[in-house]
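Journal club prep — side note

Before the paper discussion, L.F. wants everyone to see what a predicted structure for a comparable chain looks like in token form. Sequence:
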Amino acid sequence: MVVRAHPRLPSVPVGAGEAVSLLDFYAVIEGRAQLVLHPDAQARVTDASAFLARLAADGRRIYGVTTGYGPLACYHVAPEQAHNLQRNLIYHLTSGVGPCYSPEQTRAILAARIISLSQGHSAIRVSTLEFLLRCLEVDLLPLVPQMGTVGASGDLTPLAHLALAWLGEGEVLLKGQRMPAAEALAREGLAPLELTYKEGLALVNGTSAMTGVAARNAILARRALAWALQWTSAYAEALGGRAEAWSVHFSRLRPHPGQQWAQSRLASLLEGSRRVEPVQPLSAIAQDQLVNGVTPEQSLLQDPYTIRCAPQIYGAICDVLDFHDRLVETELNAVTDNPLFFPDEDLVLHGGNFYGQHVGFASDALHMALVKMAIHLERKLARITDPGLNHGLPAFLQPRQTGLQSGFMGAQVTASAILAELRSEAMPASIQSIPTNANNQDVVPMGTIAARKASRALEHLYRLLAIDAMVMAQALELRAAAASVAEAGFSPASVRALAWLRQTVPPLIEDRPLGPEIEALALRLASENPPA
């Protein structure tokens, strides 16, 4: 079988010795690009497979090839039993339960496994790798339950559900249509896999489920960060904030890379705005108003933290995202099964590259950053809907018949509920080690659970972002009154964002059910970047 690049899709070569970036990976899982096996990878994969065949023929002891699995590796298995040994591995591991991964997540898991196997140290055949590439190309996606892996010997259980479908068993989605795996393979002219030597183990023994999910999380988190900054800028304009705290002078003196980026980005979003107070020379104390050395109450010199500390909040979040993305991109391009084969050195090594601690720590760190972003969004909403704090805007931003109409009162409560749910699910997964596998896996990383939790947090966060966007847009229009937002002096960035949002959600003039609009806008926010 030869997998050729789709003529209309950009190619992303794998096994070429160059890392696949998270952006290219995301393009693949969205169907905007196609993984293609590099010719050099074909040679390396072929060499490793031939090397293993020679070792097996010589009767060498190789874990999972001529032995049982886990604590049963003390039992030797004859090479002629290779097919049964690999099939039985997949059978006993297909014990996953719970809801299935989404099609996008399953594509990510499959793509991540292909990238790892293409590097030529897993001893599978080129034909098997091409089979996987073909399944990804035609959107043949096994149904994979999410629960059942501790991420210790990689993602054995979810990857086994993938492999079961490739054997022609179980169920799949073919271009979105659910059907038996055997039927889907036949429709695409694919014969079920016949596994040899280590191929079953190579398919299931790696961190590709947690890594695929985490790599997708990385792009969605970056997009959420971009939207949060966009509507934070609009929030500052709606409340007549001070540009002073967003000056890049602050990040020069506290040079965290994330804060430098956030400070610069927020300042750029305010460019052209006449709705914020520019940096002013220090005013003098009104000496003629002093009474016993104290003047009457004056205006505050500083904004609340939701405005003033936004560069520091989002700067720290950005730095956590950088940490997450660096670890996940490295893992995406790593070889993570066991044992590993080095034919040029006549070497087979048994070790623990399947251990998913890096992804576990990265995902838990990302989860914390997402919760902090949600906290900031909810506090913004609480302030701008409160007539005692929002500098003259109507209660809950209801423009008329306040009392008869309640505006965003219900949506603000929903935002609080979403934040509570995010906080309640924020316990780190990567420290929840439970020994398993007859104490063979006596310390485990729970990386897949951490990645899944971060993925759920992103779903919640985008709903909160949707409420935030709807409320901030309403605030801009109320401040503009009869004028257009552009005429009223708001920044070009806010004008563009408002126009973008109004394509999906109309202004809230009279109370109406907002739940469906929140869900629809959340999906759109997750799929598009802020307008440039």
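L.F.'s comment for the group: Confidence is low (pLDDT under 50) at residues 1-5. Keep this in mind when we get to the figures.
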